[in-house]
Specification:
The protein is 8% helix and 34% strand. It is built from one helix and 27 strands. Strands 20, 22, 23, 25, 26 and 27 form a six-stranded mixed sheet that branches. It has a five-stranded mixed sheet with strand order 4-10-9-6-7, with no helix packed on it. The longest helix is centred in the C-terminal third of the chain and has 29 residues. It is flat.
């Protein structure tokens, strides 16, 4: 029954049991079945030793057919380390069996999927910057994009081990503004990794920032001077591009008014009025020190964009300005560059022919015509029968 054999001795005095350890499939250990995010380098395939086995054969392939296996080899050990670097974000299938002293059945087929990335194996964190101070309690998190990523996982915690994250989000973009107010004067740790339908990248390096002090300022009264309150930043007014402007350049100049006591201005530009996926984010370390800025990135043709600005200093931010919108110019039409119709030259570039040259041309035409007629008459006379 199964892998056990029974036998009785010649005198029928003893019942003997034999266990055939090689009739059962090899049991594979690692990588576990359907593992995701496996590093593409130095992958180790491992299985349990089968009692009595002296050699094993293992196979690795893109599918479960194994008819033309990508990798196949023989070993006397119960593990093998892949020297070849595998492809990124790819699912592989593997199996193993005993081949000496006898063939065992193949192990169950298991799969694993390699991680996303490439030379960049994890997203790079951009904002808030590492060690940033006085960060807004509703910060905008921003990180670099990764090829092959469908989404990004963001974790924010008050401890480096992320044992109890206060934010744990899966997001489709590389920027997101917290919808949860953080605590004032608190250090937070955050990290991001990319994910796809079947794999994910490594986690980014952990970055930390500290939120701003409480906005409530309590000062003891000074009997020598009247009680004053801290200056609040006013909201910027947007100048250019004008609201509702059309035909805007693809690299427009953005302008707004000056706000007193301001250190920098933060600018957001998006294709939707809710700014859920801004195309340009100039905040925190990337804030603008002047009241004008020209984008260094071409916007799309014939597209409506929304933008807003707020002032900031060490004490905090103003409210965001009213949202303004503009529409970029349409792409150039082909017939405005290459016309299929002929048109007269403009008067400014038409050529004037002198009268003597006109007379010369007329004379030449008459002479050539007379010559051709004379030659025709001579040829006809020569062909006339005598």
């Amino acid at each position: 029954m199964g892998n056990k054999l029974w036998s009785v001795d010649k005198v029928h005095a003893k019942l003997m049991t034999f266990t055939d350890s090689l009739i059962m499939p090899v049991i594979s250990i690692s990588p576990a079945d359907q593992t995701s995010g496996t590093d593409i380098r130095n992958i180790n395939l491992e299985w349990f030793l089968s009692k009595g086995a002296t050699k094993y054969e293992w196979q690795l392939d893109y599918d479960t057919d194994f008819s033309d296996a990508l990798f196949t080899n023989i070993t006397t050990l119960n593990s093998v380390q892949l020297i070849e670097q595998l492809k990124l974000a790819t699912t592989y299938y593997w199996r193993v069996r005993v081949i000496e002293p006898i063939l065992s059945p193949w192990s169950n087929i298991k799969s694993f999927t390699t991680n996303l990335g490439g030379s960049i194996i994890a997203p790079s964190l951009r904002s808030p910057g590492a060690g940033a101070k006085s960060v807004d309690i509703l910060p905008i998190f921003q990180w670099g994009a990764m090829g092959g990523a469908d989404n990004y996982e963001l974790m924010v915690s008050t401890n480096y081990s992320f044992t109890n994250p206060i934010i744990n989000k899966t997001l489709p973009t590389t920027a997101w503004q917290s919808d949860t107010s953080l605590e004032c004067n608190t250090t937070y740790y955050w990290k991001v990794r990319a994910s796809s339908s079947n794999s994910y990248s490594s986690w980014s390096a952990v970055s930390a920032f500290t939120t701003k002090q409480s906005s409530v300022v309590v000062k003891p009264p000074n009997p020598q001077s009247p009680l004053t309150s801290p200056t609040l930043l006013t909201t910027p007014t947007l100048y250019n591009p004008e609201a509702g402007a059309t035909g805007a350049q693809l690299k427009p100049l953005f302008q707004w008014n000056t706000i007193a006591s301001t250190d920098n201005y933060e600018l957001l530009i998006s294709t939707n009025a809710s700014f859920t996926n801004p195309v340009i984010i100039r905040i925190s370390d990337y804030a603008i020190s002047a009241t004008s800025w020209q984008t260094d990135t071409n916007l799309e043709y014939d597209t409506t964009y929304y933008w807003k600005v707020r002032a900031s200093n060490a004490a905090g931010h103003s409210a965001w300005s009213a949202v303004s919108s503009f529409t970029t110019k349409s792409p150039p039409k082909l017939n405005s560059v290459l016309s299929t119709e002929t048109s007269p030259l403009p008067a400014s570039i038409q050529l004037e022919i002198p009268k003597w040259m006109q007379y010369l041309f007329s004379t030449l035409i008459v002479v050539i015509t007379f010559f051709l007629i004379t030659m025709l008459v001579i040829v006809m006379k020569m062909r006339r029968p005598s």
